[in-house]
């Protein structure tokens, strides 16, 4: 098996023709645990074997078994809460638009991610059908970081569907701030975060990030 271990960056480096691809030790370990539990195959997943060629070989074997099993379900991250999985699946089947809020899964602090956070839940094809978010009118979307979701909302009625038990919304305020073509800025938790060309643009951004409206300022 022509795989190189990068101990400094905790990566498996796998040659692919003229280049190479990488997989993190932690990623392989967690994926292997999930595959063994789902497929009920005779592989022992040990923490002390993380980052070894042996565990990578077990991972490749599990991938092969998964292909043979023709998995039908959506493949979520091992650490995604059950309720988040249930809601995403429900919205995938109903094709109703949803809003996702990403953040720290340990503390619940919102990252204030503004891109690729609203759309229709779909999923990829292939062995592992991972959830993606597709914008209206488009045929492909971006991967959902399902294990980093701290809040979910229904786009149409702005109803909160799920929220992290320790959810922390950053404190946002609008201030006047002459900066080239910009007239206002948003301060987040005491630090300058973004500039805007008008009060209304700044206010819409704050409302969007808080989930009070579902249209981000252009």
Description:
Helix 1 (25-39) packs across helix 2. The protein has a six-stranded antiparallel sheet. Strands 1-2-3 form a three-stranded antiparallel sheet. The chain starts with a strand and ends in an 8-residue tail after the last helix. The chain is of the alpha+beta class and 218 residues long. It has helices spanning 25-39, 53-69, 82-94, 199-210, and strands at 4-6, 11-16, 19-24, 98-102, 118-123, 131-134, 142-143, 149-154, 160-163, 172-179, 182-188, 191-196. A hairpin with a 7-residue loop joins strand 5 (118-123) and strand 6 (131-134). The protein folds into three domains: 4-69, no CATH class; 82-163; 172-210, no CATH class.
Q: First CA to last CA: what distance?
A: 50 Å
- Compute the number of helices: 4
Total domains, how many? Answer: 3
Strand tally, please?
12
Strand fraction: 25-35%
Give average pLDDT, whole number: 93
Show the helix and strand layout.
Blueprint: E1 4-6, E2 11-16, E3 19-24, H1 25-39, H2 53-69, H3 82-94, E4 98-102, E5 118-123, E6 131-134, E7 142-143, E8 149-154, E9 160-163, E10 172-179, E11 182-188, E12 191-196, H4 199-210
Antiparallel strand pairs: 1-2, 2-3, 4-5, 4-8, 5-6, 6-7, 8-9, 10-11, 11-12
What is shown here, in short?
Helix content is 26%, strand content 29%. Helix 1 packs across helix 2 (53-69).
Key features?
218 residues; alpha+beta; 3 domains; six-stranded antiparallel β-sheet; three-stranded antiparallel β-sheet; 4 helices; 29% strand; globular
């Amino acid at each position: 098996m022509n795989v190189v271990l990068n101990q400094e960056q905790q990566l498996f480096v796998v040659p692919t023709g003229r280049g190479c691809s990488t997989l993190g030790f932690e990623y392989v370990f967690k994926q292997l645990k999930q595959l063994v539990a789902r497929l009920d195959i005779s592989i022992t997943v040990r923490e002390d074997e993380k980052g070894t060629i042996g565990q990578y070989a077990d991972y490749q074997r599990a991938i092969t078994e998964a292909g043979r099993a023709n998995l039908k379900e959506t493949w979520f991250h091992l650490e995604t809460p059950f309720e988040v999985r249930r809601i995403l699946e429900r919205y995938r089947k109903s094709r109703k638009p949803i809003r996702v809020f990403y953040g720290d899964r340990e503390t619940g602090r919102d990252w204030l991610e503004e891109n690729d956070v609203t759309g229709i839940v779909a999923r990829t094809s292939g062995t592992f059908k991972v959830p993606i978010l597709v914008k209206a009118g488009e045929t492909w979307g971006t991967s959902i970081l399902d294990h980093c979701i701290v809040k979910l909302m229904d786009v149409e009625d702005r109803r909160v569907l799920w929220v992290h038990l320790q959810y922390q919304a950053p404190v946002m305020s609008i201030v006047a701030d002459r900066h080239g073509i910009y007239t206002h800025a948003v301060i987040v938790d005491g630090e300058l975060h973004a500039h805007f060309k008008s009060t209304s643009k700044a206010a819409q951004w704050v409302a969007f990030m808080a989930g009070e409206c579902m249209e981000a300022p252009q």
